[in-house]
Amino acid sequence: MSKRLIMILALALVAGLTCAAYAEVQNVKISGDITVMAVSRNNLDLVKTPTTDGGAGSAVSTAAYDDKEEDLLSITRVRLDADLTDNVSTTVRLLNERNWNGESAAGTSESNRNIGLATANAVDEQDLDLDLAFVTLKEFLYSPLTLTVGRQELRFGNGWIVGDPDTNGAALRSHLAEGDLSARKSFDAIRATLDYDPLVIDAIFAKVQENVTTRNDDVNLSGLNAAYALDQETTIEAFYFLKTRGSNAAAVTNLDSGNATAFGDTSTNKQATDTVNTVGLRVVNKSIKNLSLDAQGAYQFGTYNPKFDPNARWISAAEKRETSDRSAWGLEIAGTYDLQDIEMISQYSPSVTAAYIYLSGAERDQTGNKAYKGWDPMFEDQTAGRLINAIMGFSNSHLACVNLKAKPVEDIGLSLDYVMGFFAKRYPEGRQAILSGVTGARNFRMGKTSYIGSEVDLTVTYDYTEDVQLSLLYGIFMPGKSINDGYALPAGNVGDFNRHRERANASEVIGSMKVTF
């Protein structure tokens, strides 16, 4: 048989296999979106830039305290959905996030600096990352069972416990300098869904962080979420989620203080796995006309290992060496009222939303006999004030939020947010704190009160077409006297001895355009 004939038969076989494979695809859909933002932020460290005092040796380097940031960035996503058979489908989505002209930039993003993590090597911000890659098997072995395997988004309820693998205030794997604006929400996970309408049960396991395979150093998430629709107006959800961080996982570090030293004393810390069990209940009710109520509460228990807590750097050496039990509480209540029945303003589609969030704060004695009471943010995906979300952690706070929405004309929407916060557990005066629970944020010196501050955000959106939306946001956060209440600059800088770092308001302006296809 000639080589030419063999080649023809081989090509025919490949063509036949290819046609057979394509014949199994019933439907293919391509979609995506492109978001372009212009971001201007100022004083996110809540400190005014120092000025010289005019005295001898007064030349002071202020670069470390001048955190004005002006960036252009883009977020691009392309998604492919393919139905293979009636019960089998696949989804793949590619993601690119980058600050403009930031190719091959040094790999420490602003969000990474906030939580004390650095990428040692340069990164190519033109990379396309795998954001979604999962297979859905409906009626898997059993009619009500759906199995979803691969990189997927996990979000339960309104994202209070599970919604974002590195919380909504940061993005560890993003190339963006503004990590809190990242669109990354995907977990590498297995999800089993049992649909016994009106009862739906989800069981999940996610590998949040895979490290050296021979050590106990991974971060895992597992849990159950059961939602039961009592009627058309009321839904009840019960949930249990477990986060485990191996005892050999990397300790939280502090780059804001100029070094990468672990906060916990890893040489003396007991090698205990850090565990957070979160069990709770959520109720959503819409029985009152135009009013939607959402209330949920949760309790956390498990083992607290201080080497994963950035604030452990500021407690006693004896306490740092001790693990302890966890005992933390969280509560969230929100209500949205549609004002469409008020005749004078109904044409503007107005609504008002009010919310209250309580997250318990840490409380331990010097010997570690008491349980650690600081709320762990788990994998939250909520925004209670955009600047507060970018600066603070989701822990140790009372937050009161009000949102007003309206459409003064057909294609223009207005949204006004007001958020006021207090510490649930006031920090001792003069203590330096990260204000972060376990996620990490900036370093602040604490003042005399528990009042965190207030934030106002105003957003204007314009629906240019059905597929193009333009928006402009202005926000300002006004911290209270509990934060940076005027304290001396480090003595290492010449001329700083008699001056103080003054508290300052943080502000941001974000203009964006989003195109969906």
Topology:
Blueprint: H1 3-23, E1 27-42, E2 69-83, E3 88-99, H2 110-114, E4 129-137, E5 145-153, E6 186-196, E7 199-209, E8 219-229, E9 234-245, E10 274-285, E11 291-304, H3 317-320, E12 324-338, E13 351-359, H4 386-391, E14 397-409, E15 412-422, E16 432-433, E17 444-445, E18 451-463, E19 468-479, E20 487-488, E21 500-501, E22 506-516
Antiparallel strand pairs: 1-2, 1-22, 2-3, 3-4, 4-5, 5-6, 6-7, 7-8, 8-9, 9-10, 10-11, 11-12, 12-13, 13-14, 14-15, 15-18, 16-17, 18-19, 19-22, 20-21
Structure commentary:
This protein is mainly beta and 517 residues long. It has one domain (25-516): Porin, CATH 2.40.160.100. It is 7% helix and 43% strand. It is built from 4 helices and 22 strands. The strands form 3 sheets. The protein has an 18-stranded antiparallel β-barrel. It has a two-stranded antiparallel ribbon with strand order 16-17. It has a two-stranded antiparallel ribbon with strand order 20-21. The longest helix has 21 residues, at 3-23. The protein is globular and about 65 Å long. The chain starts with a helix and ends with a strand.
